[in-house]
């Protein structure tokens, strides 16, 4: 019996317009047309690594591994069809999960692809929103919204677009209006782009382990907002609001299985308390740092986590009986406000968890943030095995190195195998796929569709969970959606759970990199750290915002504190190395990067950072060697090749840089760093039009990924406008650069543009101020774009100020 296999694929359906009439008029001609289609199209499908799945009359079912292969193949199919009489095609493309059953391909997503095709014009291509998301990052493609089709029997909500670039025809809306939801039947216009986001909201389906989960939702049905009277008049006032850390309950039993049980008790109480108004609840990441530690007092934990209260407890399980003890302690004076022991049968564990959490709420005098008019569904549970797999995936994901994140993927996949309905497992997969690409361990071309699929799956399962909305925000950010759409996901996540530290963390990053709202970014960065004070990655994000605000001493303290708590956290060393490099402290920067290569010698990001430091100092040969080590460790990463092209450029080896860029373009369509280097080279070659175009592509690619590189692309565009004598363009670029943070390199870019404009006094003044403010342009020593100024007395003076000798 053939094994059934699932995979993510781009699915293509084609249909010959008017074929039925042709068959009725001349069967032999119709048969010849099918043979011609087969003879011409099969080699094209093979060219783009596609599968010729089946022929259905005059229609074709094709399958591709990537969206771009499918789209590029279909465009070539339509181009070829134009020269063949009667071969008038409609084509539909969708991306989704399919089930391979022998030679057959089945699944809801196959159905969607087939039903999208009729919305295409003859000679045209229609795509679903998932495919459109991939094309949005490609400036060569233009698409137009058709609307949301009314597809009976299809559970997914989709939107359709037609490709209008590449000489493809636009769909006549009036022809398909009757098949669209919410369309104006008199004008044929779809209900509008806003309708894409109007997802049907269904009740929450929280999924905690079945043997430890409590029916917390039942407590919310009391009329109005629940307000529990204070049971202790001794609570001290806290200007920052009440706060609590729930320490991992100690497993007093001997077997390992009970360890998961006691952790689960802690988790459920955390989840309950996280929904309390004005109560700051420290996240799991930070509190579990103290698991098993007996060398620290409650008062010390309270100070480290900056909380007013600490809950601790223990669990002893024997057979069908369980005893749970818990006590609530005020941090400032170690006062025990409440304690209790509970002996229960395991079937009563649900009520017991609620009882403990409610008692704490009453003692803290808090109000539950419930929505009393919402329907409260029966809770869908998951198994303790699935939940344990998920927690291990989270642990490895938080390491943010290649080995850790790839291990996280395996745990999240095992979670899905154990429970295909557990939305947080899909959240974990979506986030990890994007993080792997974000850190340069994979490509966005491959991982964005995978992340999008899993984020959509999580949203379908439970659209009322903060984690789900945060994951969709991350996808929306990388997909280059309208910033307002991306922001709406972040805000919804925070609304659903104000204590979800990751939502504040990622929103802070978005505000910094995309919106350039650094003060608001700092606010949410600090909020995230308050909720998860011992999280290394949250601390790094806060440090980056502090750097953007030129609060570099604060950033240095933040990063050193992370290393103190997590002495082998790779990203902390790399971030501190980058901080020192941004200040021109080369020795310290090199030391930190080299320490990182010792901590994780097989992690390419350490070698990439070391290569950047060596290159920026003019040690280009050593820099190239380190870049090649990065590539050796990540042979399939186009990002490693991109960074190698940077090394070649600053080493003035423009030929090898160009050859490397060509290799990259043969492997991926998304390469903003390669675009940047190509733009620099074209500027050197005085191809101003080509340079301007590719630099804009680079800038668009870096939006949401790298504030520094986005500023470099803008700076080069400003130089091009100077050569083109387009002063309006120059002023526009300068205006945009002025919106960047202090340490993004943007101010130095303005200074360099001023030099090219001939305003040497202003240009050198800006560059000098940046050096004096510990904010120099890191490539000031080696940038070929500055060669024409290197003999200026002022330039030589600035090199000396920067503690560098003039380049020979």
TrEMBL record:
Chain ranges passing through the membrane: 208-228
Record domain Guanylate cyclase: where: 10-117
Protein name (record): Guanylate cyclase domain-containing protein
Biased composition (Polar residues): 195-204
GO BP annotations listed: cyclic nucleotide biosynthetic process; intracellular signal transduction
Keyword terms: Membrane, Transmembrane, Transmembrane helix
Database matches in InterPro entries: A/G_cyclase, Nucleotide_cyclase, TPR-like_helical_dom_sf, TPR_rpt
Region (Disordered): 184-204
A Pfam family the protein falls into: Guanylate_cyc
């Amino acid at each position: 019996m053939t094994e059934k296999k699932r995979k993510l694929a781009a699915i293509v359906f084609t249909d010959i317009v008017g074929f039925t009439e042709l068959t009725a008029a001349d069967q032999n001609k119709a048969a010849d047309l099918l043979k011609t289609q087969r003879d011409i199209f099969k080699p094209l499908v093979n060219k783009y690594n596609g599968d010729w799945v089946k022929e259905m009359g005059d229609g074709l079912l094709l399958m591709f591994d990537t969206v771009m292969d499918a789209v590029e193949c279909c465009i070539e199919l339509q181009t070829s069809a134009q020269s063949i009489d009667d071969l008038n095609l409609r084509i539909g493309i969708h991306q989704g999960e399919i089930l391979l059953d022998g030679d057959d391909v089945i699944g809801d997503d196959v159905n969607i692809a087939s039903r999208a095709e009729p919305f295409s014009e003859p000679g045209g291509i229609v795509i679903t929103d998932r495919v459109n998301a991939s094309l949005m990052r490609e400036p060569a493609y233009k698409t137009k919204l058709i609307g949301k089709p009314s597809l009976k029997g299809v559970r997914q909500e989709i939107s359709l677009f037609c490709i209008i670039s590449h000489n493809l025809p636009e769909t006549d809306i009036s022809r398909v209006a009757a098949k669209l939801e919410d369309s104006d039947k008199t004008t044929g216009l779809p209900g509008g782009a806003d309708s894409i986001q109007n997802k049907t909201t269904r009740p929450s389906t929280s999924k905690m382990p079945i043997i430890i989960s409590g029916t917390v939702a039942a407590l919310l049905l009391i009329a109005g907002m629940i307000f529990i009277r204070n049971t202790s008049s001794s609570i001290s006032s806290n200007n920052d609001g009440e706060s609590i850390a729930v320490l991992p309950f100690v497993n007093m039993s001997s077997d390992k299985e009970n360890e998961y049980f006691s952790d689960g008790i802690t988790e459920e109480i955390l989840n309950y308390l996280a929904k309390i108004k004005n109560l700051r609840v420290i996240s799991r990441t930070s509190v579990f740092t103290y698991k098993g530690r007996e060398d620290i007092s409650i008062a010390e934990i309270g100070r480290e986590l900056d909380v007013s209260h600490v809950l601790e407890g223990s669990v002893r399980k024997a057979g069908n009986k369980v005893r749970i003890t818990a006590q609530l302690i005020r941090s400032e004076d170690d006062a025990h406000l409440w304690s209790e022991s509970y002996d229960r049968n395991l079937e009563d564990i649900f009520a017991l968890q609620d009882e403990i959490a409610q008692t704490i709420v009453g003692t803290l005098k808090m109000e539950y943030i419930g929505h009393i008019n919402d329907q409260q569904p029966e809770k869908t549970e998951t198994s303790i095995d699935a939940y344990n797999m998920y927690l291990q995936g989270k642990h490895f994901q938080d390491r943010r190195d290649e080995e850790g994140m790839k291990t996280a993927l395996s745990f999240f996949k095992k979670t899905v195998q154990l429970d295909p309905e557990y939305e947080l497992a899909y959240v974990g997969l979506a986030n990890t796929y994007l993080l792997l690409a974000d850190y340069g361990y994979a490509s966005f071309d491959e991982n964005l569709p995978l992340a999008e699929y899993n984020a959509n799956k999580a949203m379908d399962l439970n659209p009322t969970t903060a984690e789900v909305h945060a994951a969709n925000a991350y996808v929306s950010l990388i997909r280059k959606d309208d910033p307002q759409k991306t922001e709406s996901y972040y805000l919804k996540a925070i609304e659903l759970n104000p204590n979800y530290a990751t939502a504040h963390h990622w929103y802070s990053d978005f505000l910094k990199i995309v919106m350039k709202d650094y003060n608001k970014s700092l606010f949410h960065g600090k909020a995230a750290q308050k909720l998860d004070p011992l999280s290394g990655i949250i601390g790094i994000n806060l440090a980056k915002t502090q750097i953007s605000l030129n609060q570099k001493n604060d950033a240095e303290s933040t990063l050193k504190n992370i290393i103190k708590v997590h002495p082998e956290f790779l990203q902390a060393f790399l971030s501190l190395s980058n901080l020192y490099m941004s200040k021109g402290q080369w020795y310290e920067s090199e030391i930190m990067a080299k320490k990182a290569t010792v901590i994780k010698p097989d992690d390419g990001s350490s070698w990439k950072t070391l290569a950047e430091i060596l290159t920026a100092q003019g040690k280009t040969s050593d820099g190239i060697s380190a870049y090649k080590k990065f590539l050796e460790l990540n042979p399939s990463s186009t990002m490693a090749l991109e960074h190698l092209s940077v090394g070649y450029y600053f080493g003035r080896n423009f030929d090898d840089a160009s050859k490397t860029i060509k290799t990259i373009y043969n492997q991926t369509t998304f390469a903003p760093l390669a675009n940047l280097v190509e733009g620099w080279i074209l500027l050197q070659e005085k191809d101003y039009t080509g340079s301007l175009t590719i630099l804009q592509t680079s800038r668009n690619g870096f939006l949401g990924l790298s504030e520094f590189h986005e500023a470099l692309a803008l700076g080069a565009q400003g130089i091009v406008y100077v050569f083109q004598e387009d002063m309006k363009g120059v002023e526009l670029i300068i205006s945009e650069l002025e919106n960047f943070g202090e340490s993004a390199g943007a101010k130095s870019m303005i200074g360099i543009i001023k030099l090219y404009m001939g305003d040497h006094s202003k240009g050198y003044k800006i560059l000098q101020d940046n050096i004096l403010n510990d904010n120099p342009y890191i490539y000031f020593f080696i940038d070929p774009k500055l060669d024409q100024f290197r003999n200026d007395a002022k330039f030589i003076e600035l090199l000396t100020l920067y503690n560098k000798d003039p380049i020979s």
